[in-house]
Design brief:
The complex is a heterotrimer of chains A (318), B (278) and C (346).
Chain A (H helix, E strand, L loop, with lengths): L2 H12 L5 E7 L6 E6 L30 E5 L1 H12 L8 E5 L8 H7 L5 E6 L3 E6 L2 E6 L6 H4 L11 E2 L10 H4 L1 H7 L3 H12 L7 H5 L25 H14 L9 H5 L7 H15 L29
Parallel strand pairs in A: 1-3, 3-4, 4-8
Antiparallel strand pairs in A: 1-2, 5-6, 6-7
Chain B lengths: L10 E10 L4 E8 L2 H6 L7 E6 L3 E6 L10 E6 L3 H7 L6 E8 L12 E7 L3 H13 L7 E7 L8 H9 L4 E6 L9 E2 L2 H8 L6 E6 L2 H13 L7 E4 L15 E2 L2 E2 L6 E3 H6 L5
Helix pairs in contact in B: 5-6
Chain C lengths: L3 E5 L3 H11 L1 E8 L2 E7 L23 E11 L7 E7 L6 E6 L1 H14 L7 H8 L1 E6 L25 E6 L2 E6 L2 H8 L9 H14 L10 H7 L4 H7 L8 H5 L6 E8 L2 E8 L20 H19 L11 H4 L7 H9 L2
Parallel strand pairs in C: 2-6, 6-7, 7-8
Antiparallel strand pairs in C: 1-9, 2-3, 4-5, 4-11, 8-9, 10-11
Helix pairs in contact in C: 6-9, 7-9
The chains are: A alpha/beta (318), B alpha/beta (278), C alpha/beta (346).
Chain lengths: 318, 278, 346
Amino acid sequence: MSKLDTLKEQIQEALPDLDFVVAWERGFDPAHATPYHIKEEADLDRMVLDATCAHNLASFLTGFKGKKVGVVVKGCDSRTVVQLMQEKLIDREAVTVFGVPCRGVLDKAKLRRAVDLSRVESLEADETTVRLSANGEEQELPREELVADKCITCRYPNPLEFDHMAGKPLEPVGDEATQCARIEAFEEKPVQERFEFWVGEMDRCIRCYACRNACPLCVCRDHCIGDSRDPHWVSQETDIRNKWMFQLIHASHLAGRCTECGECERACPMDIPVLMFKKKLSSAVKELFNYESGVDPAAIPPLFTFQIDEETINERGW
Amino acid sequence: MCDCKNPYLPEKATILEVVQETANIKTFRVRLDDEDKMKAFTFEPGQVGQLSVFGAGESTFVINSPPTRMDYLQFSVMEAGEVTRALHGLKAGDKVGVRAPLGNAFPAQQMKGKDIVFVGGGIGMAPLRTLLLYMLDNRDDYGKITVLYGSRSPADFCYQEDLDEWMARDDMELVLTADTGSDDWQHRVGLIPHVLLDMEPTAKNAVAVTCGPPIMIKFTVQALEKLGFAHEDIITTLEKRMKCGVGICGRCNIGTKYVCADGPVFTYAELKELPNEL
Amino acid sequence: MAKTVFLPEENLDAWIKAMAAERRVMAPVRDHEAVVYAQVNDASAVELDTQATESPKKAIFPQTETLLSFKRMKTAESPDALDIEIRESIEAEPTVVFGARPCGVRGFAMFDRVYDNKRITDPYYKARRDSTHFVTIGCDKPMNACFCHWVDSGPTDDDGTDVLLVPVEGGYAARAVTDEGKKLLDLAETTTRKGVKAEADAVAKQALEAMSEAPDLSDVPAKIMDAFDDLDFWSEMTAACVSCGACTYLCPTCYCFNITDEAAGLSGKRIRTWDNCMNHNYTQEASGHNPRPTKAHRMRNRVGHKFGYYPDLHDGTILCCGCGRCIARCPNSVDIRRIVMRVKER
């Protein structure tokens, strides 16, 4: 039985006790899936499970207070569930987690560079190849060239937290050493070049806050300093300074919490690599506290607490 | 460039006087700095203005002095957010910006010859004040005038000077009611709708004008319906978050109506046609 | 109708240079992963074969503009009080928006009805609107998210443009639509090519035929009102939505804005910036009350405004140009076509 069929069965059985289950259905064309709510059995027919299912559905969980819901998560998404448990932002008892092992999702920027993403007629992906037809042209491309960067160095293909699992566990493809590769490569450039890079990237930001709203762990939400007049730290102008300031504050709020699900970067309609800010702080947290977020539900994020003597920080140099 | 008037450009004005009405409400009397413009300024009761505190922003308030008394323009401000807090920090002599008049007005002409029943709750008395004073200044044009003004407590009544004067007049009736009383409170104690029903104002050839917190309006309208007022004869004025104040920025709409331009004055009959999005 | 002439592809560069000598030319250029409108002086950086990521609306309606600036100062007349100087700043320069698609350009006709009408004129908008003209490129093939023909337009609609270019073999079939367009087209080296108008018509026909049938949306305003109080329906429609502003800011017809004061010390400015009705704070009142507290309420207003209220107020004109950016760029692929059809089919 396919993973999808197993998942459908699992959801069907749990559905009577749940208000709804968040899953993916086909979007406006074969290259896009879209989140939806399964409320009754008939809704199951629309469910899909493939390489277009990039969305982290766990990002909706904090909006469902008071409801009993189900959510389908990939490995990386499950770290969000773990992080939400750590921070007590969800009631674990009220959430049924349907886990699916994942070998990678397609990255829209990479797709757009390779094919005419606005005119995809069909798309199919298996373990190694993506077969698609766009603008009348049929193409076969290696999957590894089209999957998101986070998938190339994936260490958690299998959900860490789940009530049901659909499919056989997969082997990780990355290890600890490769996690920071993207940041390390970037930091080899001189500071001036890095500065100019970000000036270039932030210029086209339109302050839509897709990155912020797609983030599962953003807690400021409607009290965000990006909109706030009290405190009034950021003006409404669309100059690079204000836009960059927002990114840095958002990343700081996520230090030690961000699980690098990549929703921020995936959501950006202008394809700005905003995940890099969070990755930088995650690697700093790893270095300072030897801590990884979203892995152990009983852990406390290092910036939520303090210890008089940090195990990993030798302040006195003795 | 066009020679059209710039609807976003405020007029400079100076605060003449600040009156502390209640713990969190202040009244500001302002005069436009440009004397010619002040002398030429016209408006109708019910119209509003955007008051600017430069650096904080703008906020919408009804011009609650009547056009028959043009020594100043009066606005009453409840402290609630950034702009109102900034306003509350100002004193006589300070500069503000005024963009007025905006919006529509009470249908004062159509109300001629009728009995008028005013029902105001808290700061909702502000828009009623302008129409009431206008009518008192044109007393012969209107019939019986009844005012019911209610607030949370005896300390929450605005316009003390006016209230004393209105109480003393014999060509209008003023009833005050507080939700909760106090030892030296000499007026009624009770919720506005109950007191209104108790007063039994006649609905025949009468128009009711009401303003106050949404929940008060809801129950007051129910009481007015019980008393026999038709929906076309119940008039209210609405509040919304506003920015441009001239029906362009798209924010203050209820369905197809923009509260800043098609309102803020609406009859209850008009409100019933609009989608349920107050 | 003016004559259709032929503009060879290789003559685009000289034409843009000629226009840029007299006016600001805004055209789609690549900006890393996106295609945005920027000022150009020649054709070298111009990208015409994809739909630009953003719409051209910033050429007339910039994302940030200063309405007025203010400065506090002491005066000799009253040294213990601060007087204030207020200065408005209305700026416009002659501009050509080159290379937008018909869908991108139509948005301005919808802005006009709101910003420049019998009741009121927005002088900032009007100054730029009056000094901006358009050379638009029609489409020879729809994208998956295109639906311009649903909203009284089409792949080669010339409504709102000054010059229309339709892609044909070797270049473009070019036609001046207005007098100003004729002036612009005269700056280009065009030739007559026998049958070029028929070629353009064939491209237009083929493009339209490639699009699936358009539904009749004239009953949608009433249907939206019928569905107004069904918040379960609107919740279902917004299951995937994250309430960001991507759809609004990329939309050629979205025109809502915010006004804020940004001050430092004794001086500052009052600025107008794009705002979006999908944001929670859009209708947040200082009392704490919010008429649209959830994304369901806000999507109801968005769809209501575009397909209901605006048409009711403006002779049935739908506040949407069918460009599909809101669908293609939505982080979660919310499809407004689906929502409108679900409303229609209730």
